[in-house]
Write a structure and sequence with these properties.
The protein contains 1 helix and 8 strands; from the N terminus they run ββαββββββ. By secondary structure, the chain is mainly beta. The protein has one domain (about 1-115): Jelly Rolls, CATH 2.60.120. Strands 1, 2, 3, 4, 5, 6, 7 and 8 form an 8-stranded antiparallel β-sheet that branches. The protein is globular, with a radius of gyration of 14 Å. It starts with a strand and ends in a 33-residue tail after the last strand. GO terms for molecular function: ATP binding; hydrolase activity.
């Protein structure tokens, strides 16, 4: 659905979180700004807790590989779809080959990028959230990198 061109400093896949495993040393994880995650997902017709990209301090560029819808919520950062400014907090159309670029936020730290249909990663213990400490969830349990 999308390709990471520039991952930024700390971008992961997060959802509503992993519940019921703390006694086994597996943390809850999940989005740090849960309302922003839920709003982004609902705007594109996903389940409120579906996986999305959690982008810390912006500086992300993705290329959409399919046509569809996306929403960007959370930190107030300048975002551009190709050469056009886009608003956060709206459902917006995307076309295959278009690039979305986020700059460093003017306020806040974390932005959420949801795409209609969700981010396709396998759930681990009931969640797609990345847990860097244990190395599970998201994409191979790690930060996203250029080329993913």
């Amino acid at each position: 659905m999308l390709k990471i061109i520039r991952a930024g400093m700390y971008t992961t896949v997060q959802d509503g979180g992993r519940h019921g495993f703390c006694q086994s040393g597996i943390s809850h994880c999940g989005a740090l700004d849960m309302p922003a995650l839920r709003i982004a997902n609902l705007l594109v017709g996903n389940d409120a807790n579906a996986p999305a990209l959690e982008i810390t301090l912006g500086q992300l560029t993705v290329e959409f590989e399919t046509d569809g819808w996306f929403a960007l919520t959370g930190a107030g950062c300048e975002a551009r779809l190709d050469d056009n400014a886009v608003w956060t907090g709206w459902r917006l159309p995307m076309k295959a080959g278009q690039r979305l670029t986020l700059k460093r936020p003017q306020h806040g730290m974390r932005s959420y990028l949801a795409v209609a249909g969700g981010i396709d990663v396998p759930p681990v213990m009931g969640s797609c959230s990345t847990d860097l400490k244990v190395g599970i969830g998201g994409l191979e349990g790690r930060l996203l990198k250029d080329g993913d």
